Amino acid sequence: MQRHEKTALMYAVDLLARQEQSSNRLREKLRRKGYGEDDIEAAILRLEEKRYLNDADACERQFRFFYEESRNSVKQICVKLMQRGFESSMIRDCIPRDTYQREVDAALRCLAVRFKPSADRRKMMANLCGKGFESSVARSAVEQFAEEEE
């Protein structure tokens, strides 16, 4: 193990003070910094005991933020959260039962940023499908968006 001025726990607390982390992401950052596995696991356990680290709560908060504040499709949100170290089962638990209208609204916001209502519908569809929107959502959004022109 390398010699550090800060313990793994101190470094982990510093990271958490700057940004909420998943336990997997925190482990990864501590490993990159050169801390040993025993020190990392002890730090994670201590943070969980003190309730500074709770993956389920953090995943729910981050999902809600993206779901309510972004133009991202649910699929894109899930990918972002997996990249942040959250388990896919935990992410799935955050997804509301009926997301159709929210997805259409997010797709409409995506179209408004990139296209004019008179744009080629196939290009709009391709853009939305590439962003992870279901084809039925993309079709509905494109139809509504194009109607604005008429």
How does this structure look, described?
- It contains nine helices and no strands.
- The mean pLDDT is 94.
- It is mainly alpha-helical and 150 residues long.
- The chain has helices at 8-18, 23-33, 37-49, 55-69, 74-83, 88-94, 100-114, 121-130, 135-147.
- The protein has three domains: 8-49; 55-94, Orthogonal Bundle (Arc Repressor Mutant, subunit A), CATH 1.10.10; 100-147.
- The protein is elongated and about 65 Å long.
Report the mean per-residue pLDDT as an integer.
Answer: 94
Using the CA coordinates, give the radius of gyration. 20 Å
Poorly predicted spans: none
User: Number of helix segments?
Assistant: 9
Q: Could you say which overall geometry the principal axes of the C-alpha atoms support?
A: elongated
Intertermini distance:
68 Å
Largest sheet: none
Strand content: under 5%
Q: Work out the helicity level.
A: over 70%
Beta-strand segment tally:
0
- Order of helices and strands, N to C? HHHHHHHHH
Number of domains: 3
Protein structure class: mainly alpha
Give a concise summary.
The protein is mainly alpha-helical and 150 residues long.
What is the fold's blueprint, element by element?
Elements: H1 8-18, H2 23-33, H3 37-49, H4 55-69, H5 74-83, H6 88-94, H7 100-114, H8 121-130, H9 135-147
Helix pairs in contact: 1-3, 2-3, 4-5, 4-6, 7-9, 8-9
Please name the defining characteristics of this protein.
Arc Repressor Mutant, subunit A, single chain, mainly alpha, 70% helix
